[in-house]
Amino acid sequence: MADPKIGVLVMSYGTPESMDGIEEYYTHIRRGHAPTPEQLAELTSRYDAVVGGVFPLRENTNRQAEGLQAALDAAAPGRYAVYQGLKHARPYIEDGVDAMGADGVRQAIGIVLAPHYSSMSVGSYMTRARERAEERGIAFQAVESYHLHPKLIEALVKRVRDAYAELAASTGAGKPLKVLFSAHSLPVRIREIGDPYEEQLLATSSAVAEGAGVSDWQFTWQSAGRTREPWLGPDILETLKETAEAGYAGVLSAPIGFVSEHLEVLYDIDIEAQAEAKRLGIKLVRIDMLGTDSLYMETLAETVEQAGRAAFM
């Protein structure tokens, strides 16, 4: 008999389980093409700089999935069962759907640990999940975005306020400060297809800035891929240089496109951008990531419940 529970497929980009898994992970990102020794050495060095051979990054996603299950159980006991599906690491998206099918789940909701929709990111996750769900006879409902959920904004506002106060205290009273909101860059061609990614990021940034009482802010990009086509910019390293040249004493980094501590935060911001800020003589402070913050878990749970009511009730 089919399980009456609604399956919830929690998706994210994925990360290797250990240093030994970096080459397989990188090969999957490159669509089956193994990285060159130089590319592998560079990525390995970044992970080593962040984790030092001990690999806790996968645990961040595991805790978020567990936190969502707990939030759903509190709101609707026994109604939802959470599964994981990763884009570039095991368990892959298809593995998560297969696990649902094996458990007899016949209705499922997909949600990504990324609040903003792009056809190149969230859209690609949902396509893979939906295709496998159809193969398994599972009705599938996708959550495309939740970038303006009130509790998400509330959680981010608190982080910006707290980190801004820390930055102001460390730079001295009256010194000019700027907030830099950021997210993972995507190829410029998303603008040609009317993709909502950029618009949604700006909407979140504006709502958070307003809630935190911040008037001097800017949106910038980070972590662009190294391909021949142009990617959205300016990059945060360029923006830091412009900010320093404009006379600012400090910058608050708010990478709102991410919800967890991983390479794009721990290396690209905490190591690379931090080093550039020091070189430029300005102070850089980063907000805490959402992780398993109760407001974020409630955001996910309420969004899932809303999708479930719309699709299956």
TrEMBL record:
Its EC number is 4.99.1.9. GO terms for cellular component: cytoplasm. GO terms for biological process: heme biosynthetic process. InterPro entries: Ferrochelatase, Ferrochelatase_AS, Ferrochelatase_C. It is an enzyme of class 4 (lyase). Keywords: Cytoplasm, Heme biosynthesis, Iron, Lyase, Metal-binding, Porphyrin biosynthesis. It catalyses: Fe-coproporphyrin III + 2 H(+) = coproporphyrin III + Fe(2+). Pathway: Porphyrin-containing compound metabolism; protoheme biosynthesis. One of its GO terms (molecular function) is ferrochelatase activity. Fe-coproporphyrin III binds at residues 13, 30, 46-47, 125. Gene3D superfamilies: 3.40.50.1400. Its main location: cytoplasm. Fe(2+) binds at residues 184, 264. It is found in: Cytoplasm. Coiled coil: none annotated. Signal peptide: none annotated. Involved in coproporphyrin-dependent heme b biosynthesis. Catalyzes the insertion of ferrous iron into coproporphyrin III to form Fe-coproporphyrin III. Belongs to the ferrochelatase family. HAMAP family: Ferrochelatase (MF_00323). This is Coproporphyrin III ferrochelatase. It comes from Paenibacillus sacheonensis. The lineage of its organism: Bacteria, Bacillati, Bacillota, Bacilli, Bacillales.
